[in-house]
Amino acid sequence: MNRDSATIMFRTFQTKILIGYGGALAVVVLVFAWSILSLLKLGKASDAILRENYKSILAAENMIIAVERQDSAVLLLLLEAENEWRQELLSNENIFLQWLGRAKDNITVDGEGKILDSIETSYTAYLMKLSEIFRDKDISIKKTFYHKEVYPLFQSVRNSCIRLREINQRAMFTASSQAQNLAVSAVWNMVGLGIIAVGFGLGFSLFLSNMLASPVGQMREAAARIAEGNYEIQVPVDRTDELGLLAEQFNNMAKKLKEYNELNIEKILTEKRKIEAVLQSADDGIIVVNPELKITDMNPMSAKIFGVEISLSLGHHFLEIIKDEQLIIFVKTVLESGQPLSFENEKNILSVKRGEDNSYYKYSIFPINIKSGFMLGVVVLLRDITRLRELDRLKSEFVMTASHELRTPLTSIGMSVEMLMERVSEQLNDKDRRLLQAAHEDVQRLKALVNDLLDLSKIEAGRIELAFEDVPVNLICEKAVSAMKFQADQKKIELFSDIQDNLPDVKVDPNKITWVLVNLIGNALRFTNQKGHIQVSARQSGDHIHISVSDDGEGIPYEYQSKIFDKFVQVKSEKNSGGSGLGLAISKEIVRAHGGTIWADSVPGKGSTFTFTAPVRNLSRKDAVKC
Ligand code: ADP
């Protein structure tokens, strides 16, 4: 349906409403007009009553009064013959004639003219008889004349006036009742028309609401079905007005939604298949856990690791399948924080017993967040490091055996070279003596390297014995400082310590920790120029003592700072010639064995600060390791 036909349709519907309500409005207007007309008619009728009859009544009244006064004046003249009564007679004659003239000008009722004619005739006769009455002097004749001739005419005039008044009064009553009838009929007409208007309006409203309610109800139902995911639904298009158009467009919308939904489902299914393929083929174990700690997905590798069936494990609590308390704590932490965890000191290793042997898995935990911040769960990734650990162990054992085997011949070579230097040095020429000296230095360096390697491999293999004691921190620091004082003085470097007062003792192996401190001071001496400064300091932070060695030497380039604690890592510089690159690696292992950590802060060209932590005395060894 194009836009124009839609507009025409719209007009049709609009016209329907307009006609419907316009009809009701027209009836209302009719009632209104009728009311105004009736009111005007009523007004006119009342006006007519006043205008037409009231004037005649007034004239009749005044004529009665005037003729009565004339009659009284005649009687008084008969008795007193005073001039003032003659005046009265004349003035009332004038008044009578004036009102008679007015009454004649306002003839409105049938028979009124006749009455007025008879009044006029009687009154003229009455006036003539009045002019005759005063001709005789004899009062008795006058009286007789009055009774016989004047009085009957007076009565006739008066009665005619009364009749005039009465017919006008009757006409007035008739007009008034007519007006009342008019008012009553107007009221009934208005009530009738009003009822018709209300009925019409109500009928149209009902018709309109029925006409709208049914298709709108169908569309509401259909919308609810669509919201539930039933995109097949269609509403009937059985009309041609805009409701029909709306239904048609609703069906179009449902069709489009269906297409869009199918497209989305296809996309989602494709993504799901991809993810499933990745999960199936992954060499690492992958487990998905929901916020209730139930397993919602796992791949074949993880089922293999824990020796379970995937279908039987889904929906089970994580702890039922992976019986590791530490891992569940980490999973809970990630679920609560919504952030991935970073693990230190290889705390994220899971050991799984398989027959006689153990398998080791390094795990990572990633949160599954969705946009609204709602947490869907976590993914636990398990990487098999059993072979790596085995290789590492074999390597450490080999290094340990090799260094152990090398130590005895190296010691004897060293002793032989030293003996040669003592006994035959004099007989040698300069070149041979220098060669012997170089051999001596190389043997010493080799011995140091072998010793370091042996120490490190022993620590890594867990074969180092730590003899824990409660030791005052300043004792360790002073011991290390005094051991290195001579070297510092020789290089004209100021070596001093700054220990916080009243520090609690630390629970450490004093020899090993002193070794770490001496190693750090030794490094600082190597990389600090003459007249430099090295400071050994210690302060408390919670359950640990932080022991630091700061120098204002050459510092460590940024790219090396994260690697220098690894084995054999050395910054390429001239001052590095004597080292083995193992000192910091050994220090790290010793500190870790004490439950502490070690790190370096350095600004190239300005100096470095190496800090390690050691547990305070009152903590047990177990607690210290947990820190
Ligand atoms: P090395 O036997 O070479 O001293 P270490 O493990 O003790 O081995 O040190 C590793 C490297 O770290 C050193 O070779 C050096 O480059 C760097 N380093 C250690 N301490 C310092 C320091 N105080 N200042 C500058 N560089 C340092």
Provide an overview of this structure:
The protein is of the alpha+beta class and 627 residues long. It folds into 4 domains: 3-203; 282-384, PAS domain (Beta-Lactamase, 2-Layer Sandwich); 391-459, Signal transduction histidine kinase, dimerisation/phosphotransfer (DHp) domain (Helix Hairpins, Orthogonal Bundle); 464-626, 2-Layer Sandwich (Heat Shock Protein 90). It is 65% helix and 13% strand. It is built from 16 helices and 12 strands. A 5-stranded antiparallel β-sheet has the order 2-1-5-4-3. It has a 5-stranded mixed β-sheet with strand order 7-9-10-12-11. Strand 11 and strand 12 form a beta hairpin. Helix 1 packs antiparallel against helix 2 and helix 3 packs antiparallel against helix 4 (139-227). It is rod-shaped and about 215 Å long. The model is unreliable at 619-627 (pLDDT under 50). The structure holds adenosine-5'-diphosphate (ADP).
Question: What is the overall pLDDT average?
Answer: 85
H-E string: HHHHHEEHHHHEEEHHEHEEHEEHHEEH
Give the radius of gyration. Answer: 66 Å
Shape category: rod-shaped
Sheet having the most strands: 5 strands, antiparallel
> What is the number of beta strands?
12
Unreliable stretches:
619-627
Give the strand line-up of the largest sheet. 2-1-5-4-3
Domain unit count: 4
Strand content: 5-15%
Q: Give me the secondary-structure category.
A: alpha+beta
Give the count of helical stretches.
16
Binned, the helix content reads 55-70%
Bound molecules: adenosine-5'-diphosphate
State the end-to-end distance: 76 Å
